[in-house]
Automatic annotation (TrEMBL):
One of its GO terms (molecular function) is DNA-binding transcription factor activity. Belongs to the LysR transcriptional regulatory family. GO terms for biological process: DNA-templated transcription. The gene is gcvA_3. The keyword Transcription regulation applies. PANTHER family: HTH-TYPE TRANSCRIPTIONAL REGULATOR, HTH-TYPE TRANSCRIPTIONAL REGULATOR TRPI. InterPro entries: LysR-type_TF_proteobact-type, LysR_HTH_N, LysR_subst-bd, WH-like_DNA-bd_sf, WH_DNA-bd_sf. Residues 16-66 form the HTH lysR-type domain. Pfam families: HTH_1, LysR_substrate. Coiled coil: none annotated. It comes from Martelella mediterranea DSM 17316. This is Gcv operon activator. Keywords: DNA-binding, Transcription, Transcription regulation.
Length: 312
């Protein structure tokens, strides 16, 4: 391993490279590693200079891996996966528990999974969950995790079908008891505003007078929960709160962007049998929420969204 150490610019170089290669975005890599974006850029430039080869093409619209970068990425992913599997097995032998890693959005974890984590632990007492949290769009490859929730085009996204991507305007119960519809506040996610900025999901067809815009969808949902306005509720995220009656539809409009939500599982080779059981549990819990919402709010006509191939 002395030769490998000589070939690297620093002990942390491969960790920084792996994150940057996975995202093909230095800022996202910096956020994951809890360092600054300039620090990522400097570390990668030093690594490239040390090995005498460009690993990234820099420019608009962003960075891309070179052929040598792809070669190193594949080798690093394979090596890191083997190391992580060995460490997980050591820990499982020590604790008697199986580790299952989920790659899901921060908002899904906060607003859907955390409220039922006690039930999960009761069902799977010998499983420890680990999370790869995604703050932005839930896309990309499975990576080195056991279960990943991903969105994609129908017929082009692998994995177990969960539901059609769908969202409905939601607000806290009684919000309109204190707020006239023309004075309502629309709570938005700044990076994912659907359609015309004046588009309104209210049946009245009137644009909202006030808007709150956040960069974090977890905060969008939280703002609606505490009665600050009407949010565009992605159903797989707000399903728990709707099932509990903490959020209610602000109108009967259900939007279908045309993508599917699916659970992707690690390939069977080297996969613990409990991974499939955890995936089954996630599906059953989410579908139970959707069934409860459908029973409480039949006007939404949600039955079709849990069937593949019905996206508009």
């Amino acid at each position: 391993m002395t030769g490998l150490r000589r070939k690297l610019s620093s002990p942390s170089a491969l960790f920084i490279f792996e994150a940057a290669a996975r995202y093909e975005n230095f800022t996202s890599a910096a956020n994951e590693l809890n360092i600054t974006q300039p620090a990522v850029s400097r570390a990668l430039a030093t690594l490239e200079s040390h090995i005498g080869s460009k690993l990234f093409l820099r420019g608009k619209p962003g960075v891309r891996l070179t052929e040598n970068g792809k070669l190193l990425r594949n080798a690093v992913i394979s090596a890191f996966s083997e190391i992580e599997r060995a460490l997980n097995e050591i820990e499982e032998r020590r604790t008697g528990k199986t580790q299952v890693t989920l790659s899901v959005s921060t908002a899904f974890t906060t607003h859907w999974l955390m409220p039922r984590i006690t039930r999960f632990q009761s069902t799977f007492p010998n499983v420890d969950l680990r999370f790869q949290l995604i703050p932005g769009p839930v896309t990309g490859e499975l990576g080195d995790v056991d279960i990943a929730m991903r969105y994609g085009a129908p017929g082009k996204t692998p994995g177990r079908f969960v539901m059609q991507e769908a969202y409905v305007p939601v607000c806290a119960p009684g919000y309109y008891d204190d707020t006239a519809r023309e004075d309502a506040t629309l709570i938005l996610l700044e990076s994912d505003i659907p359609g015309d900025p004046q588009w309104t999901p209210l049946d009245s067809g009137q644009p909202y007078r006030n808007k709150l815009t956040f960069s974090d969808y977890s905060v969008v949902v939280q703002a609606a929960l505490v009665g600050q306005g009407v949010a565009l509720g992605w159903l797989n995220i707000v399903a728990h709160w709707m099932g509990q009656g903490r959020l209610v539809p602000a109108s009967s409009t259900v939007m279908l962007p045309g993508r599917e939500c699916r659970l992707q599982l690690r390939q069977e080779e080297g996969r613990s049998p409990v991974v499939s059981e955890v995936a089954d549990w996630l599906l059953q819990e989410l579908h139970a929420d959707l069934s409860a919402i459908s029973a409480s709010h039949p006007e939404l006509d949600l039955d079709s969204i849990i069937k593949p191939g019905n996206a508009a």
